[in-house]
Design brief:
two-stranded antiparallel ribbon, mainly alpha, globular, 2 strands
Length: about 375
């Protein structure tokens, strides 16, 4: 572990920007149709529970990061293998998010630019930031957080004044009952983006010791706020575009923002979308990347984690280009393979198993305040 400290506010900012990440890009939970915003909110409830599970594990071992307490709970061999699997998963997920970024820019502005070049430009910046440590990433988040919300609030006001939202597009609520929403929750929104907060298990130990008791409330609040923001975003997308167009659009928020016209003067505000998504994706990839680098350093006992940033960063960059031959295949792989098999295992099964073992090993202190 590096010698770093982050404040509660920095933790809040990192979690919020991470959760928004690429989730604002895609038509999240659109399989629930006009109830997509409800599927996001229900997924949020499950995400809050998963965050509590991971934070509870941290309370059992506040001075250890996951690769270390995995070895302590499961034994050195099994714990090391499991930690290595998480490293691969973090790298793979970072590559997927980086691919989302590249596809967005190619669709939006750089039609003739190779995907590798676009991804490489962002990845080089991320490598530099992560090589400087988690404190630098956290301080960068502080700088951009206010700017992101300024853009979001401004965009929301402009959409309202443009008169684009048709509330009828959100009706009828629960047209087919609760079961379609439940299916979307347990196959999509529970994992992406809310279950992904497991990556912050690598960052909890850097929170100032005197403020760790408040970190749980801060984390839950950040995830809750991000869920509400995503639900509002999807409700606006559906209200403006309708269910069919939102489902067909690769980037529905971009289509929504392109629809803004105020007094025949303010229009084509695509730059709002581009700046917001670039910033959010930067932090999502950075945190996944940092978790992979820090975990690798712990497993292989490397004293200088920064020495790993370039080789691991290059692997993530090449993975982002090669994991799928097209964006449609990339999305299909995410829905059919990642959320069906990988996400339940890494986000739910393993954390609950580790918490159960930790509880049994520490049952004498299990009556401490949660």
């Amino acid at each position: 572990m590096e010698k770093a400290k982050i404040s509660l506010y920095q933790l809040f900012v990192l979690i919020l920007l991470f959760e928004l990440g690429s989730a604002i890009l895609v038509p999240l939970a659109i399989d629930a149709k006009q109830d997509a915003w409800l599927a996001i909110l229900f997924g949020l409830l499950g995400g809050l529970f998963l965050f509590w599970v991971n934070f509870r594990l941290f309370l059992y071992y506040p001075e250890l990061v996951p690769p270390e307490y995995m070895q302590k709970l499961l034994g050195k061999i099994v714990g090391t293998i499991l930690a290595f699997c998480y490293i691969i998963f973090f790298m793979y997920t970072a590559a997927r998010v980086l691919r989302d970024f590249g596809e967005m820019l190619l669709t939006f502005a750089y039609l003739e630019t190779p995907l590798f070049i676009v991804n490489a430009l962002l990845m080089l910046v991320i490598i530099y930031a992560v090589s400087k440590g988690i404190e630098v990433v956290a301080r960068t988040g502080e700088l951009f957080f206010v700017f992101i919300y300024f853009l979001a609030i401004t965009g929301f006001i402009l959409i309202i004044f443009s008169g684009l939202i048709d509330i009828n597009n959100l009706k009828p609520i629960l047209e087919h009952g609760i079961f379609p929403i439940a299916r979307v929750v347990f196959t999509q929104t529970l994992y992406v983006p809310f279950g992904e907060a497991i990556v912050f298990s690598m960052i909890f130990p850097y929170v100032t010791k005197t403020k760790r008791k408040s970190a749980k409330k801060i984390g839950l609040f950040a995830i809750g706020l991000s869920g509400i923001n995503l639900a509002i975003t999807m409700a606006i997308n559906i209200g403006v575009l309708g269910v069919d167009l939102t489902a067909r659009s690769q980037f529905p928020l971009l289509s929504t923002i392109q629809s803004i016209q105020v007094a025949e003067f303010l229009e084509r505000l695509d730059v709002f979308f581009m700046i917001s998504t670039v910033i959010c994706i930067f932090f999502k990839v950075s945190i996944y990347f940092y978790a992979a680098v820090a975990s690798t350093a712990v497993i292989f006992k490397i004293k200088e984690p920064s020495s790993l940033t370039y080789p691991i960063g290059m692997v993530i960059l090449f993975m982002s280009v090669t994991i799928a031959s097209s964006y449609a295949e990339h999305l299909k792989e995410g829905l059919k393979f990642v959320t069906s098999y990988l996400s339940p295992f890494f986000f739910i099964v393993i954390p609950l198993l580790l918490l159960g073992i930790a509880f049994l090993k520490n049952r004498k202190s299990s009556n401490q305040k949660i």
